[in-house]
Amino acid sequence: MSRLLSLALLAPALFAQAPIRYDAGTISGLPARNIGSAQISGRIAAVAAVEDTGRLTVFAATASGGIWKSVNAGTTFKSVFDNPAVQSTGAIAIDPSNPKNVWVGTGESWARNSVSIGDGVYKSTDAGENWTNVGLKDSERIAKILIDPKDGNTVYVCAAGHLWDDSTERGVYKSADGGKSWRKVLAGANPSTGCGMLAMSPQAPKTIYASMWDFRRQGWTFRSGGPGSGLFQSTDTGEHWTELTAANAKGLPAKPYGRIAVAVAPGKPATVYATIEAEKSALFRSDDSGRTWAQLDASQFQVWRPFYFANLIVDPKDENKVFKAGGSLLLSTDGGRSFGPVSGAAHGDFHDVWIDPAHTESVFSTDDGGLWRSHDGGHRWEHIVNLPVSQFYHVSVDNAEPYHVYGGLQDNSSWVADSSYPGGISNSRWENMYGGDGFWTWEDPADPTYIYAEAQGGELGRVNRVTHEVRSIKPYANYGEKKLRFNWNTPVQMSPNEKGTIYIGAQFLFRSRDHGQSWERISPDLSTNDPEKQKQEESGGITVDNSAAEMHTTIYSISESPRNGSIIWAGTDDGNLQITRDGGKTWTNTAAHISGAGKAPWVSWVEAGRFAEGTAYTTLDRHMYGDMKPYAYKTTDFGATWTALPVQQAGVRGYAHVIKEDTQNPNLLFLGTEFGLWVSIDGGQRWAQYKGTNFPAVAVRDLVVHPRTSDLVLATHGRGIWIIDDITPWRALNNELLTEDAGFLPVQPGVQWLETFGGWAEGDGAFRGESRSTEAFIPYYQRSRHIYGDLKIEILDAAGKLVDTVPTSKHRGVSRATWSMHLKGPRVPPAATAAFAAAIGPRILPGVYTVRMTRGDKVYNTQLNVTLDPRAKFTVEDRKQQFELVNRLGAMLNRMSDAVDAIIAARDAALRDKQPERAAAIEKIRTKIVATKEGGAITGEERLREFLAGLYGDVNGYEGRPTASQVARADALGRELDDVIREFTTLSGVTVGN
Question: How many CB atoms lie within 10 A of CB 920?
Fold first, then answer.
C-alpha cells in the first residue's frame, strides 16, 4: 500500500486525536502569476480623477476586478483593492475638499446577466491605498456617490440594490458624518425599486436629482421599469424629495418609466439632462431646474439598452456639450438636440466619462473593453493597455512546451496566449481567434492546427489558427422546430477518451465525431422544458431586450467520464442533473436525489470523477433567486445518492461556478466561486481560501490542472488568467503531515529551462505577464511560524560539498524556496568599462543534489534532481564541456582580479615610496589588462579584461558544447594573461597565485 493511501486511511483517526489547523495560511505559500491580458482588458464601470500637487491621479473602478490607481495620468496603474471581500465596483468619487478621501460603491449597477455583487461602501483616507467598509453591506450594487464640495463629511449614495430579488437596503442614502452613519432619505415605492442615478452641480449642492429604478432580473427574463421608477428632486440637501412628473414638470413623458440617466451641468446648475426609458424613450432637457422640459434627441443610439447605458456627462465649462454613454460614445455640442458617435476605434459599450475640469480636452472614458484616454476632447482615443482586468468565462490548455492557454471573455472574444515567454507575456503574445462574447475555446486534439471557439448563444466555430479561417459548425433545429435553445454560456466539451469528439448542449445534447461536419442528437430534451421560462421575446420590460443572456431551460454543463466514454453527465439551468451510462441511449435524471439546494437551481458545473466511474461532483447556483450561498455535492453511485459537501460550514463565500478533482490526488479538490478559489485536501470536508500573491476575492469561473506540469490555471472574471505553478506540494498535505513541526514536501525535478531572450521595450504603460520561473522549486511545510533559531536551506552536491544557500520564508503552512541553479559569478577587476557579460555565474550541471533545511536544532533532508530543458538540442555531455570551459574562464577572471589587485597595491606602494617612474611602469602593465580611459559604462578601449569577460559571456550564454573557436580563444587569452602577469612579476618581484 502506498504511503499516501495509508495516510488517507489513517486520516480520520488522526483528525480525531488532535485539532489540525487548515486554512488560507496553510496553502497560500504557493505564489500565483497573472498573465493578463491587459490589452483586451475588461468592463470598467466608472472612472474618477483629480489633479493634486501638479499631477493627475486616476482611479478606475472595474466591473469585477477591483480599483486601480494611477498617479501619472494613466501611464501606469496598480491594483489598490486586493484586500476587500469583493471585487465588483459600481461607483467611485474623490472628495473635492480633500483628495486623500476616496469613496467606492461596490457592486456594479450596469446589471447584465453576468454581473457580480458588492458589499457596500468603502472609504479610503490615504488616497486609495487602504480601505474601510463603512456600511450599506446589503445594498449589493451602487450606481453613484456624490460628495458635498463644501463639506466632505456629507455624502450621498445611490444604492440600486439587489438585482435578483426584493430588498430593503436600496434607495438614496445620506451620511453627515463621513460614513459613520447612514440615513435613507429616498426610498423606492416597492422592494424592487432602487436608485438608478444621482446628480448635482458643485455650484449648487443643495439641489440633487435622483432617478429611481424599478427592475428585476431572473434567469429567463429581465424587467427594466415599473411603477416604482421615477425622477425626483431635492432642494434641501436630500432631506425632502419631490417626484417630477408630466403633471408638475411640463414636457416630461407619461409614466411608466424604466431606467433614467440624469445629469446637471456643472457650470450651469439650472440645466439638467435626462434620458428617460419610457414608451417613447428620449433625451429631455430642462433649463429651469426641472420645472419644464423639452424633448430632444430620440435616436436609436440615444435610447438603446437603457438599463446598460444610463449615464450622461456634461462638460464642466460648456453646458451644451454632453456625452451619452452607449454602444458607441455619443457627443452633442448643441445642447442635446443632436448627437454623433465619437468613439472611433474604441471597443464600445461605454459606461462612464471623466472630463478634466481645468483642461476639458483631457477626457477618460470606460467601456466593456477597458479604459480610454483622449487628448482632443473625446474625438480620438488611446487605449490604456496596462489594466489586466479581463473577464474570462472558461479556460483550457494544450500540451505544447511551454503550453498555451485558451479562453473566452465577456464581450471580448476568444483568445490564445503563451503560458510563458522569454521576457514575459506581453499583450502581443495574446492572439484573437474568434468574435462575440467569448466562452469555450479548445485546441482540437486530433488536429492542433484548429481551434474550437464558441460565442454567446452556441455560436460555435472551427478556426484555423494559422490562417484564421472560420467555419461555423453549430448544430441547427430540425424541421418543425422553431430553434434550438442555447444558453448564453453554452457548454462545449471535448471528449477525454476520443480525440476530436466534441459535445455541445442546447436543450438536447449533441455529439460530433467528425469535427462538426455532422452532429448526432444523443438525448431527448434534458431540461424541464417549462414554457413559462421560454418567453425571451417578452424580456426587457419597457424596452425589449431579447439577447441570448435570457435563454433558459437549456443544458449548462457537460462532462464525459475520463474512465468510460459511455458515461456522460449533463446539468441544466433549471435544475436537472442527467446521466447516461450507455453513450446517450437512455438517460436518468438524478436531481430528485439532491436535497438542500432549493427548487430549480442552475447546475453550474458537473464533473465526472477521474478515479472512479460512479463518482461525480456538481455545483449548484441559486444566486439568480437571490441566494448567494455556495452549494456543492458529490456522488459515488452514479447519482443514486448525492452528499452535500460542507462548503458553507467551512466558510466558503460566494455562489459556486466550478468544482474539479486534481489529476493525481482524489482528495485534492478545487472550488471556484464568485469570491475566489477554495482548496480542499480531504475530499471536500475542509476548505481553505487561496490568497497567495495577494490573489483577490475575484470570481473564479473555471480552472484546469495541466496534466504534465501540474500547474493550476485559473480563469477569473475580472482579473485575467492566473497560474499557480506546480501544485504538487498541495497533493502531499494530509492530516499526518499537518501535525508535524516541519518538513520538505515532494520536490519536482529542477528543469533548467532555456534562459533566452524575447520581447521588446514597450514603455512603462504596457502590461507584461510573468513567465514561469527558471529556478528550481523547493517546497516545505511548517506547522507554525518559525521564530527562534536559524532557518536556512542549503544545497549540497553529490560529494556533500556546499553549493549554495537559498532564502527562506518563516511563515507557517506551505512555503516555496527557489534556487537559481547558478553558481556565483566570477570576480572581475575594476575598470573604466562595465563587464556586463560576466555578471552571471554558470549554471550547475544536471544531477542529483541534496537539499538540507536547518530549523533550529532540527535538520531535514531531501533530494533535487536537476534536468535539462526537454527542448534542448544538446546533451548532458555537451553541458559538461560548456560548464568546464565557463568555469575555467571564470577562474581566469578571478586570477586576473588577483593580478590587478596586486598591480594596484604595488603601484600605490611605489607612489608612497616616491618612485614615480616605477609606479608609471607598473600602471602601464595594468593598462594591458583593463580599460583605463574614463567614459562611463562604455568606452572605446578593449583590453584583456574586456576580451575575457566577453568570451565568458558568450560561453555562459549558451549551455551546449562550446565552439572550437571559443576553446582556442580561451587558450590564447590564458597565455596572454600569463604573459602580462610574468611581466609584472619580473618588474615588481610580486608573485600572483594561480
Answer: 12
Distance CA 784, CA 769 (A): 33
Mapped onto helix, strand or coil, the DSSP state of residue 884 is: helix
Question: Using an 8 Å Cβ cutoff, are 404 and 398 in contact?
Answer: yes
pLDDT band at 140 (very low <50, low <70, confident <90, very high): very high
Question: Per-residue pLDDT for 714 more than 50?
Answer: yes
Which pLDDT score is estimated for 543? 95
Q: 459-498: per-residue pLDDT in tens?
A: 999 999 999 999 999 999 999 998 999 999 999 999 999 9
Parallel, antiparallel, or unpaired: how do β-strands 631-635 and 676-680 relate?
unpaired
Residues 506 and 555: beta-carbon distance below 8 Å:
yes
CA–CA separation, 565 and 562 (whole Å): 7
Question: In sequence order, what are the residues at sequence separation of 6 or more whose Cβ sits closer than 8 angstroms to the Cβ of residue 965?
Answer: none
Residue with cell 606602494: 909
pLDDT for residue 662 is more than 90: yes
Q: Taking Cα atoms as reference points, which of 300, 140, 145, 166 lies closest to residue 223?
A: 166
The pLDDT of residue 512 is above 80? yes
- DSSP, residue by residue, 789-813: S-EEEEEE-TTS-EEEEE-----SE
Overall average pLDDT of the 2-9 stretch: 35
CA end-to-end distance (rounded Å), the chain: 57
- Of 479, 475, 451, nearest to 465 by C-alpha is 451
Whether residue 212 is predicted with pLDDT greater than 80 in this model: the reply is yes
Q: Cα–chain-centroid distance for residue 584?
A: 37
- Does residue 3 surpass a pLDDT of 50? no
Cα 706 to Cα 742: distance, rounded to the nearest angstrom: 28
Nearest to 31 by CA among 683, 809, 875: 809
User: How far, in Å, CA of 797 to CA of 726, rounded?
Assistant: 24
As a whole number of Å, the CA-based R_g of the chain is 33
pLDDT at position 7 is 36
pLDDT band at residue 993, thresholds of 50, 70 and 90?
confident
Buried b (16+ CB within 10 A) or exposed e, 615-628: bbbbbbbbbbbebb
CA–centroid distance for 502 within its chain:
28
Average pLDDT of the residues in 611-615: 98
Work out the number of other CB atoms within 10 angstroms of the CB of residue 221: 20
Provide the CA 402 distance to its chain's centre, in angstroms.
Answer: 20
Q: HSE (CB half, 13 Å, CA atoms) of 117?
A: 23
| Residues contacting 602, CB < 8 A, separation 6+ | 219, 556, 572, 573, 574, 575, 620, 621, 622, 624
Identify whether the C-beta of residue 839 lies closer than 8 Å to the C-beta of residue 823.
Answer: no
* Strands of the 700-705 sheet, one edge to the other: 33-36, 721-724, 712-716, 700-705
The residues, ordered by sequence, that sit 6+ positions from 188 with a Cβ below 8 Å of its Cβ are 161, 170, 171, 194, 195, 212, 214, 228
State residue 13 phi and psi, 5-degree precision. -65, -40
What mean pLDDT is reported for the chain? Answer: 95
In contact, 632 and 603? CB cutoff 8 Å: no
- CA geometry: angle at 63 spanning 59 and 65, to 5°? 70
Nearest Cα neighbor of 259 from 193, 325, 208, 324 is 193
Q: What is the pLDDT of residue 411?
A: 95
Task: State mean pLDDT over 516-532.
Answer: 98
CA distance to 507, 518, 519, 679, 971, per residue, from 483 (Å): 10, 18, 16, 41, 79
Compute the distance between CA of residue 719 and CA of residue 241 in angstroms, rounded to an integer: 40
pLDDT band for position 52 (cuts 50, 70, 90) = confident
**Half-sphere CA count of 930, side-chain side, radius 13 A:** 22
Least confident of 32-46, 118-132, 481-495, 825-839: 825-839
